[in-house]
C-alpha cells in the first residue's frame, strides 16, 4: 500500500532526527522534576513498595504464586505496564497534540512522532528492566534460557504500541474528547488486563480465551513467561496468533486513520 | 553567468483553492471521521489563486484580516494542504509562521536552536558554528538558557527570527512576526534580510499589517481580498492599490 511506503520512507529519511527528538523527549520528561533522573527510578520503586505493602499485609495475606512471593511475581508485568504500556496508551495518544509545533510550524513527517515517543518511553523501560533483572538476581533467582525470549516480547510490545500511538494520536488530534476517553479507560485497563493478578488462574475457559485477545495481557503474561512461568512463546502459539490478529487490525486502523486525517490535522490543531 | 538559473521559479501556485471544514463541536468532528453523514460548514479561505515567485524575489502579501494570507504561507511551508490545485516548492524553506513559531516551550532557547537546526538537516558542528551568531542576534543574553515558556512574546519573536534567518534558508517565509519587535531590532532584521537576499539569493515571502514594513522589506506586492488574488505588481503600485492615498479634504 501507498501509505505504508510513505510512512516507511519518512522514517528512513528522518531517522537521525527521530533519535534526537527521542533523546530530547527523555531529557525533557525528567529535567523538570526536582529529583531529575532519579525520578525515573524512584516513582516505580515507590509504587512497587506500596503494592508490596498492601498485598503482603492487607489484601492478600501474603500468598505465593507459583512459588514466588507476590511482589516478585508482580514486578515484571507491572514494570512493563507502568514504564511503557500505560504511558504509550495515554501519552502516545496525546503525542501529536504535545508536539503540535512540529505539525503546524514546520514541515515535519507526523507519522514519526509516535515513533520517537515510543523510543523515548522504551529507553526508560529498558533501564527499569535492568533493575528488575537485578532484583531477581539479588533474591536468588538467577538468569536462565527463558530470559532470552524477553526481546521477543519487547518487540511485540513496541510494535503494537507504536501502531496504537499513530492511530490514537491522529484521532486525539482531531478531538480532545477522544483523548479524554482514552485517559479514563486506561485506569480500568490496568485492573482488567491481569497486571496485578494471574490470568492463567481464571476458571472460565471462555473468559480466559477472550482475555488473551488483549495485547496488554499477552505482553504482561509474556514477561512473566520469562521470569516466573518458564514457558517458551512458541509453546503458546495460539495466544501469539491471537495477539497477531489484534496487532494487524491495529496496523490497519492506524494506516486508515493516517490516510484519512493527515492533511486535515494541521488545520485542526 | 547563467541568467536562466538565477531567475528560476522556486514557488508556484496553480489554481490553488483551500476550504476549511467547520464542525459544530469537537464531538461532531470526531464522528465525522467515522461517518460521512455528519454535517459541516465550509469556509473558502483561498479561492483559485495562481502565481509564480522567482529566486531572489522579495514578495509582500497585503490584505485585510481573513483575506487568506496566512493560509497561503502555510501551504508554502507545507503545513497546510490545498483542497484543489497544485503547489510547487523548490528549495529549503525556513518559516516563521505567526508568533512563537515552532519552539518547544519546555526546552531552553539554546536547546531549541539545536533542535531547529537538526530538524532543518544541519549537523551539530554546523549548528555550533551558527550558535553564537544566533544568540547575539536574538539579544536574549542570559535568557538563552531558560525555558522558552518564560519568554515574552517579543523575545520569542526575536529568537524565532534569529533562528530562521541564520539557519541558511533558501526560501524565507515570515508571517506577521516582526510586529512585536522594536525599531532597532527591525532595522537589524532588514539589514540581515537584505544581506541574504543579495548575497545568497534567498527568496523572501512576507506578510505584515504595516505598509511601511512591506515597503522596507519587499520589491513586489500581492494583494489578497476575500481569498482571491486581486493585484500583483511592484510594491509601490500594490500599496497604492491596497491603501489608496486619501483625497485631500
Ligand atoms: N485552521 C482553520 N480552520 C478554520 N478556518 C480557518 C483556519 N485558518 C483560517 N481560517 C479562516 O480562513 C480565512 C483566512 O484566514 P487567514 O489565512 O488566516 O487570513 P489572514 O492571514 O489573511 O488574516 C479566515 O476567514 C479564517 O477564519
Ligand atoms: Mg494571518
Provide an overview of this structure.
The complex is a heterodimer of chains A (269) and B (249). Chain A is mainly α. Chain A has helices spanning 2-13, 15-31, 38-59, 70-98, 100-104, 112-138, 150-174, 176-192, 205-211, 215-229, 237-261, 265-268, and strands at residues 64-65, 68-69. Chain A has one domain (2-268). Chain A is built from 12 helices and 2 strands; from the N terminus they run αααββααααααααα. In chain A, helix 2 (15-31) packs across helix 6 (112-138), helix 4 (70-98) runs parallel beside helix 7 (150-174) and helix 7 packs antiparallel against helix 10 (215-229). The longest helix of chain B has 18 residues, at 183-200. Helices cover 38% and strands 27% of the residues of chain B. With 249 residues, chain B is α/β, with parallel strands linked by helices. The structure holds adenosine-5'-diphosphate and magnesium ion. Residues 20, 22, 43, 45, 63, 65-71 of chain B line the site of adenosine-5'-diphosphate.
Write the layout of secondary structure elements.
The complex is a heterodimer of chains A (269) and B (249).
Chain A: H1 2-13, H2 15-31, H3 38-59, E1 64-65, E2 68-69, H4 70-98, H5 100-104, H6 112-138, H7 150-174, H8 176-192, H9 205-211, H10 215-229, H11 237-261, H12 265-268
Antiparallel strand pairs in A: 1-2
Helix pairs in contact in A: 2-6, 3-4, 4-6, 4-7, 4-8, 4-10, 6-7, 7-8, 7-10, 7-11
Chain B: H1 3-6, E1 9-22, H2 26-34, E2 41-54, E3 58-62, H3 69-77, E4 84-89, E5 93-96, H4 109-119, H5 124-138, H6 153-166, E6 171-175, H7 183-200, E7 203-207, H8 211-217, E8 220-225, E9 228-234, H9 235-242
Parallel strand pairs in B: 3-7, 3-8, 5-6, 6-7
Antiparallel strand pairs in B: 1-2, 1-4, 8-9
Helix pairs in contact in B: 4-5, 5-6, 6-7
Bound molecules: adenosine-5'-diphosphate (ADP) and magnesium ion.
Magnesium ion is lined by residues 69-70 of chain B.
Amino acid at each position: 500500500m501507498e501509505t505504508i511506503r510513505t510512512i516507511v520512507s519518512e522514517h528512513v529519511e528522518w531517522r537521525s532526527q527521530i533519535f534526537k527528538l527521542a533523546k530530547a523527549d527523555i531529557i525533557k520528561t525528567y529535567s523538570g522534576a526536582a529529583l531529575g533522573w532519579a525520578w525515573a527510578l524512584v516513582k516505580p520503586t515507590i509504587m512497587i513498595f506500596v503494592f508490596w505493602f498492601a498485598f503482603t499485609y492487607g489484601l492478600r495475606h501474603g500468598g505465593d504464586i507459583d512459588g514466588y512471593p507476590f511482589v516478585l511475581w508482580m514486578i515484571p508485568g507491572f514494570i512493563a505496564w507502568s514504564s511503557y504500556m500505560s504511558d504509550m496508551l495515554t501519552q502516545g495518544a496525546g503525542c501529536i497534540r504535545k508536539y503540535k509545533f512540529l505539525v503546524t510550524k514546520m514541515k515535519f513527517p507526523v507519522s514519526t512522532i509516535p515513533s520517537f515517543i515510543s523510543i523515548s518511553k522504551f529507553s526508560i523501560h529498558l533501564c527499569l528492566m535492568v533493575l528488575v533483572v537485578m532484583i531477581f538476581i539479588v533474591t536468588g533467582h538467577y538468569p536462565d534460557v527463558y530470559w532470552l525470549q524477553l526481546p521477543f516480547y519487547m518487540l511485540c510490545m513496541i510494535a503494537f504500541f507504536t501502531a496504537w500511538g499513530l492511530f490514537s494520536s491522529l484521532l486525539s488530534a482531531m478531538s480532545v474528547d477522544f483523548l479524554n476517553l482514552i485517559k479514563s479507560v486506561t485506569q480500568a485497563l490496568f485492573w482488567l488486563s491481569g497486571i496485578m493478578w494471574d490470568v492463567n488462574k481464571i476458571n472460565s475457559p471462555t473468559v480466559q480465551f477472550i482475555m488473551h485477545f488483549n495485547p496488554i495481557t499477552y505482553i504482561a503474561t509474556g514477561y512473566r513467561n520469562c521470569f516466573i512461568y518458564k514457558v517458551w512463546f512458541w509453546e503458546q502459539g495460539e495466544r501469539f496468533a491471537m495477539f497477531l490478529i489484534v496487532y494487524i487490525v491495529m496496523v490497519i486502523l492506524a494506516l486508515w486513520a493516517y490516510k484519512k486525517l493527515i492533511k486535515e490535522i494541521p488545520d485542526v490543531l | 553567468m547563467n541568467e536562466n538559473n538565477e531567475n528560476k521559479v522556486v514557488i508556484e501556485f496553480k489554481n490553488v483553492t483551500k476550504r476549511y471544514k467547520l464542525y459544530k463541536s469537537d464531538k461532531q468532528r470526531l464522528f465525522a471521521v467515522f461517518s460521512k453523514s455528519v454535517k459541516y460548514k465550509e469556509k473558502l479561505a483561498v479561492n483559485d489563486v495562481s502565481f509564480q515567485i522567482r529566486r531572489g524575489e522579495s514578495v509582500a502579501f497585503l490584505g485585510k484580516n481573513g483575506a487568506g494570507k496566512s493560509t497561503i504561507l502555510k501551504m508554502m511551508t507545507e503545513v497546510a494542504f490545498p483542497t484543489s490545485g497544485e503547489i510547487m516548492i523548490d528549495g529549503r524553506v525556513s518559516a516563521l509562521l505567526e508568533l512563537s513559531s515552532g519552539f518547544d516551550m519546555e526546552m531552553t532557547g539554546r536547546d531549541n536552536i539545536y533542535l531547529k537546526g537538526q530538524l532543518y538537516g544541519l549537523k551539530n558542528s554546523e549548528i555550533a558554528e551558527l550558535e553564537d551568531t544566533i544568540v547575539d542576534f536574538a539579544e536574549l543574553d542570559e535568557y538563552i538558557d531558560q525555558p522558552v515558556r518564560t519568554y515574552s512574546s517579543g523575545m520569542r519573536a526575536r529568537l524565532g527570527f534569529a533562528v530562521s534567518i541564520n539557519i541558511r534558508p533558501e526560501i524565507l517565509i515570515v508571517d506577521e512576526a516582526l510586529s512585536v519587535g522594536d525599531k532597532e531590532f527591525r532595522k537589524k532584521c532588514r539589514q540581515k534580510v537584505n544581506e541574504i537576499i543579495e548575497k545568497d539569493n534567498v527568496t523572501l515571502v512576507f506578510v505584515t499589517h504595516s505598509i511601511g514594513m512591506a515597503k522596507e522589506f519587499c520589491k513586489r506586492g500581492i494583494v489578497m481580498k476575500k481569498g482571491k488574488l486581486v493585484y500583483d505588481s511592484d510594491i509601490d503600485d500594490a500599496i497604492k492599490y491596497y491603501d489608496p492615498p486619501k483625497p485631500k479634504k
